[in-house]
Amino acid sequence: MVERQKQIGRDRVSRLVSWGHWFAFYNGLLAIIVGYRYLGTVGFPESIVGWSYLALSTIGHFSFLAFMVYLVLIFPITLLLPYSKILRGYAAVVATLSLCMLLYDTIIYDDYGLHLSPFVFDLAWADLNGLLQGTSYIITPIGILALELTLANYLWKRIEKIRKRNYGNKVVGVVGLCFIASHLIHIWGDAADVTEITQFDDAYPLSYPATARSFMESYGIDNSLEDQDQTRPKTSLKYPLSPMQCTPDDKPNILFIAIDSLQAKLVDSTTMPFLTAYADKNQTFQKHLSGGNQFSSGMFSLLYGLQGSYMNAIDLHYESPVLTQELAASGYQLGLFTSVDTIARPQAIFDDFERIDSQYDDSYASSDISSVENWQQWIQASTQPWFTLLNLKSPDSYDTPIGFLGVKTVKADRSLKSAEKVLFNQYRQSLNFIDSQLKEILTDLPANTLVVITGVSGKMFTSNPTEARVNLSPDNVQVPMVIHWPKQSAHKRINYRTTHNALVPTLMTQVLGCTNPTTDFSAGSSLMQPSDRTWVYTGDNRIFAIYQQSEITTIDRHGKYRIYDSEYKKRLKKKMSAPELIEVMREGRRFYIH
To answer: Which ranges in 113-167 belong to alpha helices (H)?
Structure first.
């Protein structure tokens, strides 16, 4: 008798476990239906490869999420309280809450571009009225609960028939195959930079697709798109928001000198005497911030005038900056002078330029010298107004030419470590070399030349690239900004805070005569007037910082955030300021089509 009761108990638990697995599977299908809303934000693929990956990824990912919810929240209750009525009701409530959370996440992702996390939840709670409108947020959970209860009871009544048909192993096999195949395809897509695949990396919550770029490259697998014929996907970004209306009155030559890793506070009369004297005669912006702490994010903000959250937008792999489009349309000849290994994102950022590369042979100093020579030859041969982007790279690697005699070594800041003090003085030598190149470039320029000199990003003294990538301190993002306007030499020192995003509106309005509101094509306002915003965004779509008046908030793609004082020296134990961060998130979605 005792053995029979144990057997009956085991059969009941077995039946409940089987029912739970099928309940989780069908909830995975419901999650796929809800998750379809994410694609309205990210955009749909156009190729068979993109659709195949999306189908496999969606089935595998949401089925996995549903199973994890079952395993963590429902399966233990199956063993503790093996009573079907209790379990069906409890499971229906858990599934309802999970689907409602997923639905809420789709709303937040559409509005902010981030998934739910403690940080995002705090942010969304402060903006709840803006996110949830009408009465659907009351009716929808009730409807989902009714559906879950119906599904739970329907499966329970038919679980024996389902078990006899032995579909379970087949379903597990198909779902498991989808899950594994999607990750294998993503490994290839990430290594080959197939945007039809990688554009979905952040689309789904708790999604961490596998990558193996370095592994595949070591085996000689091609990681470029040069030989791939990709069709441009259906647009999800409207950039600019309205057709541009530009009529330039005058067409000055424009020389844009962008120096990699140029830290603002080391531009002084000892280290860079020529640039310091040049700045004293022209317009200088004392509190200028780059749009990022890396080459790609800094250059993106300079040429697109958008905040770095748009860097990964699939459309911008095919859409060059509005600034360079309008320059070309106005009859300018565009030239880019940099080293051959320079790669920036998005892919279309330099499409409007004639690119003249200097060779890189383990010395950026030599490349910079060649770039300057190439630029001089190019402008002499030019027969029409020109816009040239001259990118000098030596400071990023602390490089100087062989035999270069620079400035005397000085005592480094006490806060620097021993190795950093060595890098500090070598960095000064590199800046002094760049200063000599600037003197050669800016001497005897054509009179009708507008000159912009700035840093692509700042510099922190470390040989650890990961540390440099996540550090968003003023040292790493504060850069000089000097502008020489043709036929003007009056010194003007600007003391309000400015950003790289403001350069595009400045050139578009002051040089190209564009009458569009700057919000049509940029995240910034003109450098010529203080911004009415109380914050500045710097970084990319992976990690970024919000600079406010007295604090700096850093946020990563998972919503983890830290708050520092204005010097980035001390972590503050306080909550973020929701209104400003809501503005930041809205700006990061403003150009997307909803």
So the answer is: 118-126, 128-131, 136-165
The tokens 């892919």 sit on which residue? 347
Strands 449-455 and 481-484: antiparallel
Cα(486)–Cα(451) distance, rounded to whole angstroms? 8
Assign 286 to helix, strand or coil: strand
Q: In the prediction, which pLDDT does 325 show?
A: 97
Cβ contacts of residue 388 below 8 Å, gap of 6+?
253, 254, 255, 256, 334, 335, 336, 337, 375, 378, 379
Q: Which amino acid is at 107?
A: I
If one counts every other C-beta atom within 10 angstroms of the C-beta of residue 235, the result is 15
Nearest to 163 by CA among 23, 25, 15, 27: 15
Structure tokens at 142: 């009730």
Q: What angle do CA 227, 230, 231 make, to 5 degrees?
A: 155
The answer to whether 281 and 489 are in contact (CB under 8 A) is yes
Whether this prediction's pTM lies above 0.85 is answered by: no
Q: Are 241 and 521 in contact (CB under 8 A)?
A: yes
Q: How far apart are CA 524 and CA 71, in angstroms?
A: 48
For residue 215, give every residue at least 6 positions away whose Cβ sits within 8 Å of its Cβ, in sequence order, or none.
191
Retrieve residue 135's tokens.
């009465």
Q: Which residue's structure tokens are 């306002």? A: 525
Residue identified by tokens 């087949």 is 170
* Per-residue tokens: 514: 């564009």
Question: Which alpha helices (DSSP H) does 166-267 contain, by range?
Answer: 168-191, 195-198, 213-218
Sole residue written with tokens 């008046």 = 549
Question: What region, left, alpha or beta, does residue 47 occupy, with left being phi > 0 and alpha being psi -120 to 50 degrees?
Answer: beta
What is the Cα–Cα distance from 91 to 96, expressed in whole angstroms?
A: 8
Query: Per-residue pLDDT tens for 275-285?
Result: 999 999 999 99
First to last CA, the chain: 66
Structure confidence by residue, pLDDT tens digits, 266-324: 999 999 999 999 999 999 999 999 999 999 999 999 999 999 989 888 788 889 999 99
